[in-house]
Write a structure and sequence with these properties.
There is one protein chain. Residues 1-18 and 409-414 have low confidence and may be disordered. Helix content is 84%, strand content 0%. The protein has one domain: MFS general substrate transporter like domains (Growth Hormone, Chain: A, Up-down Bundle). The chain is mainly alpha-helical.
């Protein structure tokens, strides 16, 4: 009998190693998808910031992407629902291939209306990642803090590289090439994903229906309401700064070339990536709600600073703001995961992402920029950062009480 058990051990070890290898490959694809998701959504804002298309002004052209950002928020809810009821893996296949096809369609668009349609389709498929990919990542992660932080860094890299790579592709291939090349990359990644990642339909029925820290219905309702405020305010701050960054750098840092604008914008976003890696370590040492509150305060200070800064100092202010903004994204996701059951995470992330409403940020930029420039745009952004900070402080207060009450029950009886 002992010999039989011993004979099975190498097989079991190989099976565990195979499972770990597949987990790492899956997480690698999810990290790459996060980078691509943010990258593809910022191609058009960078293009219109650096080149006037069809003889239109910046305020007119930036408004054209409204449909794309509306779809990015609106379609996250059905994406999360489909993933929870059908297959998260197959939804990620649709993300890769759909984004690729939409980008190629934008590159080949014969008119402004065709380009708007391609951008709208891009928003639909790009909406898949956050409710689906984030839920998959939390399900697969062993060390959630580090895994989520690195995934956030990958998203930041997508944002960071969008301006620089798009500017380079525009200089080398024209604005159509700036859409076409990433489209081919997305399609190739989708084909590889289908080949390497098996369907997880068999696993979806085993998802946990109990949260790590269960909440009473009243507390859960209050926190969910506050998170809607957080999602709306954070989405406006995040998307306003991400979309407008190349133009802010162009206007407030004088006498620089197109390539330098893209490079400086990339450098600012990389500061956010570095900060997010640090936050991934900090979540293992400090309570999540405390970090959340500190980062919210930092973000508000950073936005106000950016509104008044000029010259090279605006780059320092933007870097500080990005560090806080992207750091809080990791903590935000981890707090949601802590108080939400895995079986519901796709839909919860989707509902909250619906309220980030990227489209409002684009409309706000187009409306306010034409009436008061970036002084007015950043003033409105500071107001939203203040609302975010107040909601986060309220969540931190409630979470502190929940965790304090939970500690006595977690201790073993003597």
């Amino acid at each position: 009998m002992t010999a039989e058990v011993t004979a099975l051990e190498p097989f079991d070890a190989d099976r565990q190693l195979l499972g770990l290898s597949r987990r790492r490959v899956s997480i690698g694809f999810l990290n790459g998808a996060h980078a691509l998701d943010h990258f593809v959504m910022l191609i058009y804002p960078t293009v219109v910031a650096l080149e006037g298309l069809y003889g239109r002004s910046y305020s007119e052209l930036i408004g054209l992407s409204t449909g794309s950002f509306v779809a990015f928020g609106l379609f996250s809810l059905p994406a999360g629902w489909l993933a929870d009821h059908w297959s998260r893996r197959n939804m990620m296949v649709a993300f890769y291939l759909g984004c690729g096809a939409s980008l190629i369609g934008a590159a080949l668009a014969p008119s402004l209306m065709a380009l708007a349609l391609a951008l709208f389709m891009l928003g639909i498929f790009a909406a898949i990642y956050h409710p689906v990919g984030t839920a998959m990542l939390i399900e697969s992660a062993i060390h959630r803090g580090r895994t989520m932080a690195f995934n956030g860094v990958c998203g930041n890299l997508g944002i960071s590289l969008a301006a620089g790579i798009t500017a380079t592709l525009m200089a080398a291939l024209s604005w159509r090439g700036a859409f076409f090349v990433p489209g081919i990359v997305c399609v190739a990644a989708g084909v590889a994903y289908v080949w390497l990642i098996p369907d997880e339909t068999r696993q979806k029925t085993a998802r946990n229906a109990t949260a790590d820290v269960p909440l009473s219905p009243a507390v859960a309702a209050v926190i969910f309401g506050l998170f809607i405020v957080v999602a709306l305010a954070a989405g406006l701050v995040f998307n306003t700064l991400s979309v407008a960054m190349p133009k802010i750098v162009d206007e407030r840092v004088s006498n620089i070339s197109l390539i330098e604008i893209g490079g400086l914008t990339t450098a600012v976003f990389i500061c956010g990536a570095i900060a997010q890696m640090a936050v991934g370590r900090l979540v293992e040492r400090f309570r999540l709600h405390v970090l959340f509150a500190v980062l919210a305060i930092m973000q508000f200070i950073g936005v106000v600073w950016t509104a008044y800064a000029s010259g090279m100092m605006v780059l320092v202010a933007l870097a500080f703001t990005m560090a806080a903004t992207y750091g809080q994204i990791t903590v935000n996701d981890l707090i949601i995961a802590r108080y939400t059951a895995d079986a519901w995470r796709g839909r919860i992330f989707a509902v909250l992402l619906t309220f980030t409403t990227s489209s409002i940020a684009v409309l706000m930029i187009a409306f306010l920029y034409g009436r008061g420039g970036f002084a007015l745009v950043l003033g409105a952004t500071a107001f939203m950062a203040l609302a975010f900070m107040i909601a986060v402080l309220a969540i931190a207060y409630i979470a502190a009480n929940v965790e304090r009450e939970r500690v006595p029950h977690a201790l073993p009886a003597e």
